[in-house]
Amino acid sequence: MLPSVFDVPASTPATTTTPTRIAVLADSDTRWKWGALTAHRIAPHENAQEGPALDGYLLRGRATPTPRQLAEVGVRADSLREVTSVEFLRAMSEESYDVVVIALVGGGVQAMLHGLKRVWEGREKRPVVVTGYVGVVYEKLADGLLLRHGADLVLANSRQDAERFRAVYEGVGADASSVTEVALPFLGGAAYEGEHDPYTVVFAVQPSVPDTRKDRTYLLNRIIQHARLHPEREVLLKLRSKPGEHTTHIEEQPYQKLIQRLDPPANFRLVYGNMGEVLDRTDLLVTISSTAALESLHRRIPTVVLTDLGVREVLGNHHFVGSGCLASWDQLDAGYRPTPDAEWVSRQGVAAGGPPSGGGSYETAFDAARERITKLLAGSALPPLTPYYTPATAPGYLPGILARHHLGPDGSPLPGAPAADKEPGPVRQIVRRAARGAYRHGVQRVAPVIRRMGEL
């Protein structure tokens, strides 16, 4: 059980309106951030004064976030606990929620949809189920979308995504009415008003791309070179997680380890923390393809998506073709600053011209989702969840996805599924932490050695 770092003291509601009860299930720090912030954005307006009653469930696994990672997100919840898939489903059968937000990878979403369909059988009223994506969708579009099909709302973070999502569903004959256009829930902050003192360049790294020592070392050398060429600037390497922590992707070659072999100048340093707070002092945001680029563009901060390693699908920077933000370190060293394309920015769900001052597109981005949820909650009993994948439509694919979450083909728990009835004891907690540490050690230390040996 994780410490309840977001627990808030009980208080008497300021109004007589019963707050919307929302459960958020997430499997990593980034998905908790998306899910919890989305929950606040989509809660019906009549509860806006006090906000929703939010219960967080963290899916137990290698990426389960630490209290520090959760605190960095800065979202408060009324309760927060770690669960297995089966434990979560049991909680959903016992608790009464208005909305359930599933912030998992595609396979996890699919498993929960089938499990929830099972546990809610015969219930007069069930919650509205919402899912979506944490950021830019640049790979496995059809696979990820069909694994999310069956939720009442599948959120699309932009007009472009909404169009693509509907096209995929309609193309396979699936109901596309669940697709609902919104925006990334963590956009915000003050618009960029001019250079800071010192001028600050931030490189926002990603855990998964690039993934080779060679490419990562190249990027570090170029960042350090930029710092040496511009000693009057502060150059920051924004990292996602500290050593020993997990995130959505496990890094085989963490930048903290690679930097130890280099000799950066005094104006270069590593930083952690909330991305929005780092952007408060940023004059130039540089990345390969991170969602941080959209946060930066939203605030009108000069933003660059690097082309040094090519513009390739595997890197995700192909998503930014047409943005006007593509550039190389050579160009940046020489003083180049790109100008974003306003139409491209608008289609990505990012406020054109920066954060709107009032009545702009971002303020209304969640209205359609909120109104739809309000209507579903006020109506008659919702029909059973109906995912596109069933044992009939995907008999060679679906059972394996469900089995990974200890569920059978009908969504019921398999015999022997881990679902403790009580808090795990100290020994079990120690073993669990040791297992996670061993997994990370295997990924970061053993796997690279084996891979290099295989290349001999």
Q: How far from one another are the termini?
A: 44 Å
Structural class: alpha/beta
Number of strands: 13
**Annotation field: number of helices:** 15
One letter per element, helices H and strands E, the order comes to EHEHEHEHEHEHEEHEHEHEHEEHHHHH
* Low-confidence segments: 1-15, 352-359
- So what's the overall shape? globular
- Mean of residue pLDDT? 87
Assess the beta-strand content as a share of residues: 5-15%
Rg of Cα set: 23 Å
Proportion in helices: 25-40%
List descriptors:
alpha/beta, 15 helices, globular
Structure description:
With 456 residues, the chain is of the alpha/beta class. The chain is built from 15 helices and 13 strands. A 7-stranded parallel beta sheet has the order 3-2-1-4-5-6-7. α3 packs parallel to α4. The longest helix is centred in the C-terminal third of the chain and has 29 residues. The N terminus is likely disordered.
What is the element layout, followed by pairings?
Blueprint: E1 21-26, H1 29-42, E2 53-59, H2 67-73, E3 79-83, H3 85-94, E4 99-103, H4 106-119, E5 128-131, H5 141-148, E6 153-156, H6 159-171, E7 179-181, E8 200-204, H7 213-229, E9 234-238, H8 255-258, E10 268-271, H9 275-279, E11 284-287, H10 292-298, E12 303-306, E13 326-327, H11 329-333, H12 342-347, H13 367-378, H14 398-403, H15 426-454
Parallel strand pairs: 1-2, 1-4, 2-3, 4-5, 5-6, 6-7, 8-9, 8-11, 9-10, 11-12, 12-13
